[in-house]
Structures are given as C-alpha cells and as structure tokens.
Amino acid sequence: MIKAIVSGAAGRMGGRIIHMLEEAEGITLAGALERPDHPVVGKDVGEVVGLPHKGLKVSGFLGEVLPLGDVLIEFTHPEPTLDHLREAAAAGKAMVIGTTGLNAAQLEELNRLATGTRVVFAPNMSVGVNLMFKVVEDIARVLSEGYDVEIVEAHHRLKKDAPSGTALKLAQVIARGLGRDLDKVGVYARHGFIGERRKEEIGLQTVRAGDIVGEHTVIFGGIGERLEIIHRAHSRDNFAKGAVRAAQWIVHQAPGLYDMQDVLGLK
C-alpha cells in the first residue's frame, strides 16, 4: 500500500485530492499538512475536508508527517513547495507537484533538487489537458507558419498567478512545435495602438471571473478558416485524480524529474 501525504490539505485542491485518495486502490492517506498558523492544524482531517472522522490530525510541520509517507502531494505556493521539496529530497521521498507560478530561479532549483529524488511536476494533471498538450504541438508542427496562435485561459477570481501554468505550458509546447522561442514571441497583453500583429506572435490572454474552475482555448487562425482546441474543467476532481495517479506511478520510478506525459505514457 502506497502511503501519501497531502500538503495544503485544507485548500481547494488538497481537499479534493484527499477525497480521491479515499476512492483509489493501492494508495492511502498517511498524513495531512497545512501551514503552522492555519486554523485547521490539530483538527481531524476528515472533518476538515467533509469526510467521516479519520483519526488523523492535520499537522503544521512537514517533519512530523514526512516519515509516515512514501510520496508527498503538493498544490500550494512556490516558496513552501520548494521548502518541502528540499526536505523530501533529503529524506529520499517521492513528490508530486502541481504548484504553479514558480519563477525562473525557482524552476531552476526545482530541476536541480529533482535529480536527488523522484518528482512529477506538472501545471495541470488532468488527463484531458495533458492529451491537449500533445495534440496542439502536433497541430502547430503540421500547420507551421500559416496560422496565428492565440491562447485564452479563464479561471476563478481567487487565482493569484497569470497566465495560468497550463496556458504557459500550452504556449511552450506550441512554440516548440513551431521552432520559436516563447521568450521572444510571447505576447501577454494588448492595449492601445499596437500596430499589426506580428506573424510569429503567440498570444496569451487571461480572464478572471466568478468560480470558473479552468478553461483553456487554443486558436489557430488562418486565412479562411480557424481551428480551436478547447478544454473545460467542470470540477477539480479531474486534477485530483491525475495527482493520485501520478503519486501511484512516481514511487516506482528512478530518481529524476517527470511530468504527466511520462505518467500517461504519451511520450
């Protein structure tokens, strides 16, 4: 039986991951973690996430629960994620990371730390979205230079980073398919008299409203036709199921950094 620890247990994603662990076979919840000053610390995790009493209290310190598990699942913020990865790597524990909004220096450190343990890092763990990553790269490669590329993402009003990690990943794989450097061709906002669109641009536009779980649209706009690939998430359970699947997979892998394409066998 694989033993999982969930960081951010009281959060929107953490709660759904714990629910999905209840339904999954071959893996169980061994520990729950929140920041030390969170009001749920010390409470039963079942009661926190809307499940029956589990006899498992939410901890405020990773060191208390890390020895209990085989894999740590983390959907929180960049700084605590890296702190926890350092501890997990030192203890030889596997880790599944769905945290977004990491800057270049943080991504560099994540890549370095992952060489000492086993890590799945993906901005979106939905099976459908990861199939979308593969499909849009193939489409970009086939359509080549004749189509304008725009990505529109929409999320709930509480999301803190923009564009979403999923939108950035979509832009990265499309840029790779087109042989372009996203740092040079990515356009993240348009306002005022901007002139004609450069043909090499890859546009990323952001919407924040209400309780939208997550929507991503990739537009390949040609002359006389338009191709759109759309993914809409209706609940967080798709992401949570993907995270549990990744946790079940990563504990059996050699040290290194993996993504959901590896987990799903899409490479």
Write up this protein.
- There is one protein chain.
- By secondary structure, the protein is an alpha/beta fold.
- The chain folds into 2 domains: 2-121 and 236-263, 3-Layer(aba) Sandwich (Rossmann fold), CATH 3.40.50.720; 127-233, 2-Layer Sandwich (Dihydrodipicolinate Reductase, domain 2), CATH 3.30.360.10.
- Helices cover 37% and strands 24% of the residues.
- It contains 10 helices and 12 strands.
- The chain has helices at residues 12-23, 45-49, 62-65, 78-91, 104-114, 127-143, 165-178, 182-185, 237-250, 260-263, and strands at 2-7, 27-33, 58-59, 71-74, 94-97, 118-121, 148-155, 186-187, 202-208, 214-221, 226-233, 256-258.
- The strands form 2 sheets. The chain has a 7-stranded parallel sheet, with helices on both faces. It has a 5-stranded mixed sheet with strand order 8-9-7-10-11.
- Strand 5, helix 5 (104-114) and strand 6 (118-121) form a beta-alpha-beta unit.
- The longest helix is centred in the middle third of the chain and has 17 residues, at 127-143.
- The chain is elongated and about 60 Å long.
- The chain starts with a strand and ends with a helix.
- The model has no long low-confidence stretch (mean pLDDT 95).
